[in-house]
Structures are given as structure tokens and as C-alpha cells.
Design goal:
Helix content: 25-40%
Distance between the termini: 53 Å
Number of strands: 32
Structural class: alpha/beta
Number of helices: 34
Oligomer: single chain
Strand order of the largest sheet: 11-9-10-7-6-14
Shape: elongated
Bound molecules: zinc ion
Largest sheet: 6 strands, mixed
Radius of gyration: 38 Å
Strand content: 15-25%
Length: about 950
């Protein structure tokens, strides 16, 4: 059975339109007419506009941040489509990585981190991950459809697709062959729970730092062969003291040897009071270099340092004199500077924790204990041994795992790196080809990030990800990097054992051996690591189209993309990884324009939080004000300038009232009183208001084109709002009566609405569609039409400025009336303006007429030296104004406040007409039906005037006011 096609034609414009309900009908209409597909296919393939969609993690529900970027990802492509470009939009899913692994670990109740997973079996675990990511896809599809975003879900790519993973291999091999990949040990922030290091940009993403309380202790390191001399060192990580191998001082700084109580201490001169207080005696002042090589007694005996030299004072520039004692304790493996210094001095590099952050067996008293738990033991042990000078606590900001919230520590781990240092010059140079919105990001957050970027650790000791295609020879350590499935088939030691390679996840690869040398003499094993999932998202441009295995021609022709958009944290994440992969592989930037948003906060200025429920459910907002209003609010918000505004339901409501509702009411008026079939394509306006509307419409098209070309959606929204306000509060307000019988005016109005329906189409696609469908007798979607072209010759800048001045004059005249309690229905005799502005109104008869109609003041009297003498008594002509500055100076208007009997009578007559018309409306007598009126009194001179205006057949005198049909 075929479903009834949705018809967007509205029968009755008297009844209020239910905007959200109408939006659902528009969605059905788009689905039924295949509008999205048509909008792409009708544009030529040779004219592509490429947009890269940063895929969301498939593990969470969409929130306002997603709605925000999804809206941009709809507005911009709709615009370029209407400009004649082919803008293909395919949805993507980020499937791999820690987020999903953690969810699955919890779901399966796995304990003990990696051990738990390996006992369960990598295949079982990965299968669970594969299933788990489809938990939210339906919700995403629903919300993305509801907000009007056109995107192809059916052909969505997934980072776990074999084709995707194969392209990631290809890209990595490309970098490897350019000598941009190396294996090393680096000190990086490490999550002991996830048992994996995290990259700097993962940490740089928001919410990774938290204030925590830690120990702040000052320890006494006893100088060798002395009775009571100690080096005072400071640390906030007591657990690292087990692994102490050296102390460092600043070579340039001054140190002192002091006596306090019975002991002698060494520390930095400028730290002495802060650490020791006032009660000490300085014995000697020394340079940092003087302390070099002083040996001390080791704190703990557990580390096997073999025959390496350790436990002495070294000098290092990184030693700070801002806190602590100016003497820094070094556990070589667990600090970035420490590791550098230890490598330089060849201090022993002995790990003391396992990958889960627990002490290894040789640390006897603490073996198997989580490092953080050991701190109490260390502190009290040192106190017992009288090696603790001072124990304090301190609140400071420390990095946490963005996924499992475990506190991170620095750890020297073996890892694979992309050599960003080697690429740096080119990364910086290629950034010059990118336009950033807002512009300051180019040399600010993004540009600076490029300059300080460390090498990128791309290996993760995890399971659910693209396995790194590196095989290492078992004898010589020779390396073979595989770049495709075909290569793997070619180099596999036992091709018969090779699976069909329909899936490249670890469970299918871990057992495969590969010849690492071309002569096929040495077998190699794959390293266990998978890629950091940011390698995958950075590979999105080519991996999503399985380049270079497929789509080669198309990709080569359309790279780089025209546009990407995400929120600001991605300048250190996705934008960055895209750039690194692209510059590394193709020697080019990946995108030309990057629009960066801020973060929307909750109404109270804090982060939106699901658990705190501090923001309104988006779907409630959709159905309360409509999606168009929300889109318009978001696109016009300062979040589009990378600021972090609070979400404001009041502002969504305002967008609904001031834009959507007003435009709809304006359009309804047209349909009720002006519509005479199809809208005309061209107009030849005669009346000044019609001319003004034509000029304003061309101006709007020009301003919108310019701002959208420059990705300035805030400006676009402002122009649109101004235009709709002008259209309703000026054009329509001043043209209501005229539109009833002026055919040219009606045509102009219709033409302007038709243009407007297309100009609003990218921003408010629903309202645009409904207006467009109801303007035309037979038509396709507004989103299949072309963007209105503006014609500079149709823009009458002078007229627009003139009208703007008229509106200011009118505004002042209205407030002058108010000030003197003169109701608008009371006609006044005359008005004027100051001399400077007076020249403007010379010979502007049409504009003066507009003012007269709007203000109900009959005459304009030009200002002259004797203007008041012959015409009116001075005392009745009152100056009002001075509030509004114009090009010509401060604008002043004057009104004649004297009410002659004739003016009074006219005013009363108008008041009576209003009363009669109200009564007519109340009694539901048609606007064109004649009536009979009874009144206590009315100004006799205006009898005919009242009858004419109210269609009253008769006016009768009587005690009670009454109106009846007949
Ligand atoms: Zn973690």
C-alpha cells in the first residue's frame, strides 16, 4: 500500500501554524521526494565542494555540542549546494580506541585490566567491542535527521572497516618509508589502569586536568662520610623515592650550607626562609656547580643498578627555584626531565612498576602494591628513619585519564613515534594555506601548537584498534612494515595459514609471521601494539574512501578539502592529526577552511553535565520552539566565534518569536491578502517602499553571500534577523493598506518573499521549505533551487540610507507624541527637523508621505530662519530629539502640539472608528459587511468619514454604543 504523500501546502492561513509539527512534515516530504539525494546528484561531479566530517565516537549519545557542529555541517553544505557545487556528505563512525574498550570491560565485568582481557581472549573481547558500538547509532540517526542535517547514513564509513584499516596501513607505511617513524623510549603521561601511554593532545583535550591533594615533602639525603650533613630535596611524588638515583641542582643559582638545630643542610639560598623559617645560621654560600658530584647515601636498596654510577649531585638547567628547595630528586624513569638527565649522565634506568602501576617484586616491602597506595608507607618510613625534614599536603592540578579518570603519571615506556620534529617546518609552512575562523587561531592556538608539538606517540598497548603493521625479525631485529593486504599475502611465511584477510583486527593477525628480509631467510613477529585511534581519524580523508586502493582519480583531484568544522579542543586533536598525516603523506595541508567553535556551557556557566541535568533536553527544545529556532540561535551565538557562552533557552525562544514567528506571520499576511497565484520572477516597483524592498532584498543577498563565503555565520544571522525585522515592522506595517489594491506592490512583496525563502534555506531549512512550497503552485524542494544572485545595480544605497533616516525621524516623532501624551490616533498639524537634516527632506515627497502616514502628522514644515513666525505660534512647536546621532550630526525633530478644533474632531472620529471596528470583530461581522451603529455622540463634521471607514449604513444617536449587522 502506498503511503499518502506529504503535502506542505497549507489550506488555512488564518489558523496559527504549529511550527514543530510542520517541521516533521517537512522531514517526511524530504524523505518521500528523496530531496537530499537529488540535491547532490543534480550538481556536476566536476564541481565538487569537499567537506570532511570529523566522525563522532560511536559510544555516546549526541549532546548540544554535536547538535552545534552538526548544524554547521548542514548549513555550509546546503549553501554551497545552492551555489551549484556537488557536496557529498557521508556519515562516519569512530569505532576504535579506549572509550569503547572501557565500556566493554565494564560490561563484561573484567577485572585486572589487560590481564582480564587476555584471559578472556582477544577475539572474544574484540567481538564484544564490535557489537557494543551499535548501541547508539539509531539515536544518532534520529537526532541528526530531526535537526535537519542532510547526511548519508546508509553508506557511512567506519574506522573498523577493513578497507579503512588497510588505508591506514598504507598511510603509515608511506611515513615509514620517508623515515618519519621511529621506535624509542619516551617519558609520557601514562594511565596505569588502561596500561597505556596517552599522547599530548589527548591530554590537551578539555577536562583532563583536575585539582587533587598530594604530599609535599622535604627529604634529607645524607651526604656520604659525614655525621650530620644533609641535602634537602623536595617532591610531590613520594612513591618515586624508591627509585631515586640522583639529585639535581641549578648550576647558576646560589646555594647555602646552614646549621639548624644539630644538623647541617644544603639548599638554595632564595628558598631557605620558605623551607627553614628564620632560625638558622648560614655557614657558607656556594654556587650550584660547587655541589656537583657530592655523593649521598641511597634511600632504598631495592633497585639493581648493576655497575652504574649513581647517588650523587648533578647540575641541570631545568631545576626551578620557584618552589621546593632548589634541589630536585630524580627517579630516572618517572619524569620527563629526569629521564633526559639520566640518559645524558648514564644513570641507571630501572623500571620499578609493572604496566598496571604496581611495584615489581624486587621492591620487597611494597611488591604488588599500587604506586599511589605506597606513598603513606614511604612517608612514615622516612619519618621513622629521621630522614623527613617536613611533611605537608598541597592542592595542585594533575592530568587524569580522559577515559577512566585515573590519575596519570610520567613513565618511560617503549613506543613508536611519528617524527613530528622532522616535519615541523613543513607543518608550519602548510598552515599558512589554511584559513581559520576565528582567524587568530592560525598563529595562536593551532600555530603555536604546531611549533611546540612533541613527537607523536602512535602506539597503544591495547586490543580494539588497527594493529600496527610492523613485523620485527627474530634474529637481527630487521623491520618490515606492511602497507596493504596484498603485501601481507606476499610476505607471509606460510600463505596457507593466512586467513582471508576480510578482517585485520588483532585476533586475525597476531599469529601471522612475515619474512622481514627480501631473501626470505628471517621470520618476524608483529609487534603487539595497535594504533592510537587518532591516527585513524587523522587518516580519514583517504581511509574513508579506501584510497589509494579505490577512488584514486577522484581523491587526487579533490584534495585538499574545502571545509572542516569542530570545536576548539580539536585544534590540538583532530585538526592537528589531520594536518600531520596530510603533510607527512601528501606534503600538503588537508583542508582550506577550518571553522572552530567554542563550547556551550550550561545556563549557570558550568560544564553541561548529564548527571547534573543542568541543561534542557534537546528533544524538548526541538518540539517546543522548532529546530529552525534552535539552529538560528546556535549559528548566531558567540560559540561560533570560539567563545564559551551559556546555553539560553530564552534566546532560543527569542529566535522563535522574532525570526520564525514574525517571518511566518508576514508570509501569512501575503497569503491571505496578496497572493494571486504564482510569484513573478522580475518586478518593476513604483512606490518608494517597494523600491526600497527590492534594494534591501538584493542587499541581503549580497551580505549573506559575502558572510557565508567567509564562513561568518554570526554575521549572516544578524543580517537575516535585521531584514526580517525591517520586512515586518516597516515594509509590511507601512504597506498593509496599499497591498490590498496595488498589484505591483503585491508582486514585489511576493518576489521578495520568494528570494527570502531561498536566502534562509541554509540556516532555517524547514521554514524555507514551507514558505517556498506555499509560494509556488508546482515545485520541487527549495533546496534544489539556486542561491539568489544579487545585482549591484538594483541596490540603491542612497534610498536605503534615506529610509534609515526616515525611520529614525519616525522613532523620535513617536516618542515626542508619547512625551506629550498625544495618542497616535490624534492627528497633528506639522513637524520639522533641525536645519542640517532639513536639507535631506527637500523634494523627498514620497518619503514625507511615508512619514505622514506612519506618524499621523499632516505636514512637514521645512526649517527656515522664520519658519515659525507665519505658520504657528512658537510655544506650540516643541523640540524633541537629540538621542540619535547620524552622519549629519545629532538629529532633532519638532512637533506642533496645538490641537485645533478640526484636528480634535478628526482625532475623536478615529477613536470612534477604532471602537466600531473592534465591536465588529468581537461580533464576528465580516470586514466587508455593512453595519448599523448607535453612538451617544460624534463630531458632526466627520459623519461621512466615519461611515466610509466603517462601512456603516447609518449612524444613530443613542445612549448605548452598539454595532449590528445590516
Ligand atoms: Zn585510563
Amino acid at each position: 500500500m502506498s503511503k499518502k504523500k506529504t503535502d506542505l501546502k497549507i489550506d488555512n492561513f488564518q489558523t496559527r501554524l504549529d511550527i514543530p509539527k510542520n517541521e516533521h512534515e517537512v522531514l517526511d516530504y524530504w524523505d518521500e521526494t528523496d530531496a537530499f539525494k537529488k540535491s547532490i546528484e543534480q550538481r556536476p561531479e566536476c564541481k565538487p565542494y569537499i567537506f570532511y566530517d570529523g566522525p563522532p565516537f560511536a559510544t555516546g549519545m549526541p549532546h548540544y555540542g554535536h547538535i552545534l557542529v552538526s548544524t554547521i555541517k548542514d548549513v555550509i553544505p546546503r549553501y554551497w549546494t545552492m551555489k551549484g557545487y556537488r557536496v557529498e556528505r557521508v556519515w562516519g563512525w569512530d569505532c576504535h580506541g579506549l572509550p569503547i574498550e572501557n565500556i566493554v570491560e565494564k560490561e563484561l565485568g573484567l577485572k585486572g585490566g589487560k590481564k582480564g582481557i587476555e584471559e578472556l581472549g582477544i577475539d572474544v573481547f574484540n567481538n564484544a567491542c564490535r557489537t557494543a558500538i551499535w548501541k547508539f547509532d539509531k539515536e544518532w540517526e534520529q537526532i541528526v535527521r530531526r535537526i535537519g542535517r542532510w547526511v548519508d547514513f546508509k553508506n557511512s564509513y567506519k574506522t573498523m572497516d577493513t578497507t579503512y584499516m588497510e588505508s591506514v596501513w598504507w598511510g603509515f607505511k608511506n611515513l615509514y618509508e620517508k623515515d618519519l617513524v621511529y621506535e624509542g623510549r619516551k617519558v609520557i603521561l601514562y594511565c596505569p589502569r588502561c596500561a597505556t601511554p596517552l599522547s599530548n593532545f589527548e591530554i590537551a583535550m578539555d577536562n583532563s586536568y583536575k585539582d587533587v591533594e598530594d604530599y609535599s615533602i622535604t627529604i634529607k639525603f645524607k651526604v656520604k662520610n659525614t655525621k650530620n650533613e644533609y641535602l634537602l630535596a623536595w617532591t610531590t611524588t613520594p612513591w618515586t623515592l624508591i627509585g631515586n638515583v640522583g639529585l639535581a641542582v641549578n648550576p647558576e643559582a646560589n646555594y647555602i650550607k646552614v646549621k639548624q638545630g644539630g644538623d647541617i643542610y644544603y639548599l638554595a639560598e632564595n628558598r631557605a626562609e620558605a623551607v627553614l623559617g628564620n632560625d638558622f645560621k648560614v655557614l657558607e654560600t656556594l654556587k650550584g656547580t660547587d655541589l656537583e658530584k657530592i655523593e649521598y647515601e641511597r634511600l632504598y636498596p631495592y633497585l639493581d643498578i648493576e655497575d652504574k654510577k649513581a647517588f650523587y649531585v648533578a647540575t641541570a638547567d631545568f631545576v626551578s627555584l620557584d618552589d621546593g628547595t632548589g634541589i630536585v630528586h630524580t627517579a630516572a624513569m618517572y619524569g620527563e626531565d629526569d629521564y633526559g638527565l639520566a640518559s645524558e649522565l648514564d644513570l641507571p634506568l630501572v623500571p620499578m612498576l609493572d604496566e598496571g602501576g604496581k611495584y615489581l617484586d624486587f621492591v620487597e616491602p611494597l611488591k604488588g602494591m599500587f604506586y599511589k597506595k605506597a606513598e603513606k608507607w614511604v612517608v612514615s618510613d622516612l619519618e621513622d628513619r629521621r630522614l623527613m625534614y617536613k611533611t605537608d599536603k598541597l592542592l595542585h592540578s594533575v592530568a587524569h585519564c580522559y577515559r577512566c579518570d585515573t590519575k596519570l603519571y610520567y613513565n618511560a615506556v617503549p613506543a613508536w613515534f611519528i617524527n613530528v620534529q622532522k616535519l615541523k617546518k613543513e607543518l608550519v609552512a602548510q598552515n599558512e594555506h589554511i584559513e581559520w575562523y576565528p582567524e587568530y587561531l592560525k598563529h595562536g592556538r593551532f600555530g603555536k601548537g604546531l611549533k611546540t608539538a612533541p613527537d607523536w606517540n602512535v602506539s597503544r598497548s591495547r586490543y580494539w584498534g588497527t594493529p600496527m603493521p610492523i613485523w620485527i625479525g627474530e634474529k637481527t631485529g630487521k623491520i618490515r612494515v606492511i602497507g596493504s593486504r596484498d603485501e601481507l599475502r606476499d610476505w607471509a611465511v606460510d600463505p596457507k595459514k593466512l586467513p582471508d584477510l576480510e578482517d585485520l583486527h588483532r585476533e586475525f593477525l597476531d599469529d601471522i609471521e612475515v619474512w622481514v628480509d627480501d631473501k626470505r631467510t628471517e621470520k618476524g613477529q608483529r609487534i603487539a601494539e595497535v594504533f592510537d585511534c587518532w591516527v585513524e581519524s587523522g587518516s580519514m580523508p583517504y581511509a574513508s574512501v579506501h584510497y589509494p586502493f579505490e577512488n584514486k582519480g577522484k581523491f587526487d583531484k579533490s584534495y585538499p578539502a574545502q571545509f572542516i568544522t569542530e570545536y576548539i579542543a580539536q585544534t590540538r586533536a583532530w585538526f592537528y592529526t589531520l594536518h600531520v598525516m596530510s603533510v607527512g603523506i601528501f606534503g600538503s595541508h588537508a583542508f582550506e577552511n577550518a571553522l572552530t567553535t567554542g563550547t556551550i556551557l550550561a545556563e549557570d556557566g558550568t560544564k553541561m553535565s548529564k548527571s547534573k541535568k543542568n541543561y534542557p533536553d534537546p528533544s524538548i527544545i526541538f518540539e517546543k520552539y522548532g529546530v529552525d529556532a534552535l539552529r538560528f540561535y546556535l549559528m548566531g551565538s558567540s560559540v561560533m566565534k570560539a567563545e564559551n557562552p551559556s546555553f539560553s533557552e530564552r534566546d532560543v525562544k527569542e529566535a522563535y518569536l522574532k525570526l520564525i514567528n514574525i517571518l511566518w506571520n508576514t508570509f501569512s499576511f501575503y497569503k491571505l491578502y496578496c497572493d494571486s497565484g504564482e510569484v513573478v520572477k522580475e518586478v518593476a516597483p513604483k512606490h518608494i517602499l517597494d523600491k526600497w524592498l527590492v534594494s534591501k532584498t538584493h542587499s541581503l543577498a549580497k551580505k549573506l553571500t559575502t558572510s557565508l563565503d567567509e564562513y561568518d555565520l554570526v554575521a549572516a544571522c544578524r543580517y537575516l534577523q535585521d531584514h526580517v525585522t525591517d520586512l515586518s515592522t516597516w515594509y509590511l506595517r507601512r504597506s498593509r493598506d496599499r497591498l490590498r489594491d496595488d498589484q505591483t506592490a503585491r508582486e514585489t512583496f511576493g518576489w521578495a518573499l520568494d528570494q527570502l525563502s531561498r536566502l534562509i534555506a541554509p540556516l532555517t531549512p524547514f521554514l524555507a521549505e514551507t514558505i517556498y512550497q506555499n509560494l509556488h503552485t508546482k515545485t520541487e524542494s527549495v533546496h534544489l533551487t539556486d542561491w539568489p544572485e544579487y545585482d549591484d545595480s538594483e541596490i540603491d544605497q542612497q534610498l536605503e540610507e534615506d529610509m534609515a533616516l526616515v525611520r529614525k525621524v519616525v522613532e523620535l516623532l513617536h516618542s515626542a507624541r508619547q512625551k506629550h501624551s498625544l495618542k497616535i490616533r490624534q492627528p497633528l498639524a506639522s513637524w520639522s527637523v533641525d536645519k542640517a537634516h532639513g536639507t535631506f527632506f527637500k523634494n523627498k515627497l514620497q518619503l514625507l508621505e511615508v512619514v505622514a502616514e506612519e506618524t499621523n502628522i499632516k505636514n512637514y514644515l521645512p526649517m527656515s530662519s522664520d519658519w515659525y513666525k507665519p505658520n504657528v505660534p512658537t510655544n506650540t512647536f516643541i523640540e524633541h530629539g537629540g538621542d540619535i546621532a547620524t552622519k549629519t550630526g545629532v538629529l532633532k525633530v519638532y512637533i506642533d502640539t496645538e490641537l485645533t478644533p478640526s484636528l480634535k474632531g478628526e482625532g475623536e472620529a478615529r477613536e470612534i472608528i477604532r471602537k466600531i471596528q473592534q465591536a465588529r470583530k468581537k461580533q464576528a461581522i465580516g470586514l466587508t459587511d455593512s453595519i448599523k451603529v448607535t453612538l451617544p455622540d460624534w463630531p458632526e463634521d466627520y459623519t461621512d468619514y466615519i461611515k466610509e471607514k466603517t462601512l456603516a449604513k447609518s449612524l444613530k444617536r443613542g445612549k448605548e454604543f452598539s454595532v449590528s449587522a445590516g
